[in-house]
Structures are given as structure tokens and as C-alpha cells.
Predict the 3D structure of the following.
Amino acid sequence: MASRRLLLELKSVAKSFGETRVLDNVDLAVEDGEFITILGPSGSGKTTILRMIGGFTMPSAGQILLDGKDISALPINRRPFNTVFQDYALFPHMTVAGNIGYGLQIRGVAKAEIKRRVADALSLVHLGQLAERYPAQLSGGQKQRVALARAIICQPRLILLDEPLAALDVELRKQMQLFLKNIQREIKTTFLFVTHDQEEAISMADRICVMNDGRIQQIGSPLDVYYRPQTEFVARFFGDNNLISGRFGPMAGDARTIDTGFGSLSCAVDGQPEMVAAAAGGSAYAVVRPESIQLAAAAAELNGCENKVSATITAVEFSGATTLVRTMPQGSDIEMRVKLPSRADGMALQIGAQVALGWRRIDSRLVPV
Amino acid sequence: MTTRIAGLPRETNQIGQTPWLLTALAYGLPVFFILIPLVSFLAYSFFWVKGTEVHYDLTLLNYIRIVTDEIYLPVLWRTCVLCLEVAALTILFGYPVAYFLAGLQGRKKYVLLMLLLVPLLMSYVIKIYAIRSILGGNGFLNRFLMATGLIQEPLTIFVFNLNAVLLALTALLIPFAVLPIFLSLERLPRNLLEASADLGASELQTFARVVLPLSLPGVIAAASFVFVLAIGDFLTPQMVGGNSGFTFGRIIYSQFGTAYNWPFGSALSVLLCVLVVIAIVIGGRFGNARGRA
């Protein structure tokens, strides 16, 4: 990614509510113009980060820097950020136009100007004909777009979105994801988007910050967090991943070998100096995604695979676009899941059949236990 | 699926049996204790009295007397103005209290709210005596003002007149104003306040543009509540009003008491009742229109 200007920085930020520590030593840098997603299960502290940036919660320790200046003590209404709340928080006694123009009214902008800018914002979110409706008369998706227009209109430096799509049904959520992404490209404003939905994060974000238990687990592009996890939590968080426990062997060129229950595997370790440096004999997981594994009748039919394992099929689960094949490698009790594109003939996979599994070195990574 | 849990069938049975009794009570009690007395008053207002004897033939004389006599309508008007003033004062004092209470966290909020409601458990007469001893010529208020040197002689402007009635009613009815306002403020979603601040509003701006408009239904409810309670009160004016603090409630009271003219008293009551219903309807309309928007 082209290096961009730094907008916002969290430095060793921590937050405790009484005895419970909800955020622990968080460092996060938000670049100007990016779409960054904070992803984590509920209780991971992701919303707390958003609320601290917005000014709704004060950090217990650490600094929040905007353009290099500490804004930790700045009250909510003096921060150049606007928020799209989870349940929209539209003012029920104001029309759509009134809601959207609220921020401008507060700033004392002239009436004619407010009218013009509200009209612009309404057409940006495709709600022009609903200006005089009240929030109670809107559908969930429409409320969502009003909340977005209201946040955009004051031209904030950063827009904070707190699980804004959680209340929408699946179909509408997909539409809104695309819509939000397009708006973000159009207005070129930085979006910080909090969600617990992995797919949502991957499909929308430029960068994803994965959180668990008040700590940042990994920050990286969607491809990074998906294919190159750095912690066990991240490796498990994006569904169905194969984690194979083993012990470090020696380095072999750029790769590191790991001795597992079904032989020695070769894993890529670029960008992971601690995996290069780890002492031989220590424990680690080899991680390989189920869709990265090839499945063939015999080992000779596998193409370009540094890692090969023979296994027995234990289950075949058809789930639409993909079919999940559960296998048990010989001499091991670790299940290996393989995800293949489905075919109409059911791929002639028989339970109990002997197959060869193979995957490339670059498709398997190491994470610490 | 029919999963049966022990004990449940009997309960559903009981629920299945009771509705007719509940329905009868729900309709019967109001009919018996409210509607029938009201209708009997309405009937009485068309009778007339000669000496101490009630004549049971229908007449409009009572209503004609109300309209033509120069006492009743002016007193009614002054009473209405007085009660509107009471409503305004209770809201003026009650709103800040409700706002403060609604802003508190946890147990403190409900303890203070309970304290506010304690006077409602006390005898009305005792409260009036207490207020009288504060407002009286030799009372706490006058002694305090003299002690501070603001006045030399005890003031008489708070003794046995309409001012005294106004202050006493206000003091007595403040809890009834605080409660509806408190409830409307409590129901206000916190995230609306956050959204307002997020969009750049100061606390004052948030109050003026979000909190106040959204608590208006509570204010209207409080006003109609207090107005209705104040206009029907005859005891307070009787005890702190003296000769000049004459209100409509006292006139009705005197018709049923000293004058022993039940038909005329009933006619006055019917008029008051109509007024109260109008006040409630207006309050309801206005409160709803604002709330739904």
C-alpha cells in the first residue's frame, strides 16, 4: 500500500472500568483516507476504542493524537469526528432534513447554505424524496443512510461507524456494505468501522485490526489477516482453519520446517522474524486454510506442493458453492479440513477412501502456541 | 411440540377461568364508583331546592343561575388563572428537580425520588398546617425576612389570600409535576445526547434542541395533572385562603355544606368536570402530537 499521511494515533491506550480491564496497551495508527475496520468478538474492546476516539469515553492511560497533537482531553463536541451509531440515534422529533442539517445548524451556518448542503447529502445517499419524513416513518436501511448523511455533512476528518449494519437483514447488509464502500471512495474521508463480522470486515476494509480480550492481535490488509495470521486467535477467527500442532525443526532456505504428527511440514516465515528465530524443539502451530489444500487420488497428481500428506476421507459436507471434505491423515488424530469448489456430480468422493492432500509452502504459516 | 412442565397446566387452567371475573371487575369498579356517582350528580343538577327540600322535577334553573349571577363565572375564571399559575410554577420548580434526578446514577437516584414522594404519604391536612405555619404572620417566612433585615414589619401578602393559596398549592403539587417530567427524561435515549454532542452541540444546545423538545410530552402531562388536581381542591383554599382567597372549589363545597343546595352544587360540579375533561383532552392531544413527531 502506498504510504499515506498519518491522521490519528493511539499510543499505549488502556481502559479499565473499575477492576475490569477492557483495553490493554493499544497502539493503533489510522492513515488519512483509509477504510480501517476494527474486528473482534463481543467484549474484545473494539467499541471502547471507537468510543474513546469519539470522546464518549476517556482513556485510563495513554494518548490519542490527531495530526500529532494530543486530543485525549478534548470534549466530544470539539473533536472533528462524526459517528454513525449502532442504532442510528436519529432525533425522533426532527425530519430527515432536520436530522442531517443538525450539525450545520449548531455551527451557525446560514439557512440557504444548510438547505443546499442537506440536499447534496440527501442525493449522495439517494434519499432526496424523503427529506420531510420523520425517522419513525423510515425503514432500517433508510435510517442507516440518514445517519450516514448526518455524519458526513460536517466534513469530519474521520467517520466512526459502530456496527452500523448489525441490525439489518443479510440482503440489505450486503447492499449497504457496497454502498458504504462506494461513499467512502467518493468523499475520500477516513472511515473507522467497528464490526464483529469477519466477512464484512474482509470485504470492506483497506486494513483490518483484529482485537481480542482488550488487545490488538494483528493489523494488516484483509489478505494478511486471512492468509498470514500471526496469532492463534487470528488463525482460528476466520473460520474452519487447519491448525496442526508440532515442534520447530530447522530452517530450510527461506522456510522453516515443523515436525508434526504426520511428518515434517515446510512453512513460509517471511515477515515473521520471531518464527525464524524460534529455538528448534519449541511448540508451534502450522496453519493452512482449507481452500488452499489440493486433494487427489494419489500424491503424484498433486501440483507444486511442498507439503504432502496421505489421509482418509471421514465426511463430505456439501454447502452450496463449496464442499467441505473432512479427512484424517494417517497416523494422526488431527482432522484436516479441505474446502473444494462444488460440482454437480458430487466429485465422486467416498467416505473411507484413501486420498493425497497437498499444499504449497507459501500457503502454510506458523503461529505461536 | 407439546412439552408439558409440571404445574403449568393448572396455571393455564386458572388463567383460562378468571377472565370473566377480571373483566367484570375491570368494567364494574369504574362504573360503580365513578360513572354512577357522576351520572347521579348530572341528574341532581337538573333538580331544584326550596328551603331544605329537594324537588325532583327537571329544570335548567341551576345552570341559568350560574351564567347570570355575577359571582360564579368570574370566580371560575380567577380559579382557572390561579391553577394555570400553579401549573406553571410547579413546572418551573419541578423541571430542574426532575432533570437533576434523571441525571443521577444508580441507587442515589431512586432514594432521592422516594424522598420526593414521601410527602404524598402524609395527611393533606398536616401538610397544609405546616405550610400555614411557614407563611403565617408570625411564621417562618416572615421571621426569616425580618431577621435578614429585608423587612421591618411582618408581611401580610402571604396570609389568607390568593397568594397563600397559590404558594400552598404549588408546594403541595410539585411532586405531581416532577414525576411525569422525570419519566419523560428517563425515557430519553442516552445515545441521542451523545449524537448531539458528536455533531458539535454544547450541553446547553443539546438541552434546548433535543432534551427540552423530547421532554415536552412529560411537561404537558405534568401541567394537566397539576391543573386538574389544583382546580378540584377546596381544602387548601379553605385553610390558607381566608376570605379573599375564594375559589370555585370552595363555592361548590359551601353549596354541599352550609348552603345545603345539592342540585346547585351538582350543577357547579358538572361545569368543573367538563372543564377538567377539556384540560385533560387538550393536554393529551398536545402531548401526543409532540411525542409522535
